[in-house]
Design a protein that fits this description.
It contains no helices and four strands. With 93 residues, the protein is mainly beta. The protein is globular and about 35 Å long. 12% of the residues are buried.
Length: 93
């Protein structure tokens, strides 16, 4: 814990993304909501809400929070140096 790292300081994951866990948390498109009781894969959350979700944990979080399953909430118009956004393009086949 303590500070972010230079982008690309660690190897990419199997999808070619760098610095996914532990550098800064990342905003995702989901609104926050309670997960369904039934087992689901990649739930997208409700269609509307009052808080957005960020994931991944940051350099300011405990290690237990530095994983994709961890969710934080907030509003993207707030400013915090431990939360950011990732722009990713899907390769064209």
């Amino acid at each position: 814990m303590g500070k972010s790292t230079k982008p690309g300081a660690y190897p990419a994951n199997r999808w070619g993304l760098y610095d996914v866990h532990g550098n800064v948390s990342e905003w995702v498109r989901d609104w926050f909501g309670i997960y369904p009781k039934a087992k689901v894969v990649d739930p997208s959350g409700p269609k509307r809400g009052f808080c957005r979700v960020f994931r991944g944990g940051s350099y300011g979080d405990l290690p237990v929070s530095c994983r994709a399953a961890w969710r934080g909430t907030g509003t993207p118009d707030s400013h915090d140096c431990t939360v950011g956004a990732r722009l990713a393009l899907r390769p064209v086949d």
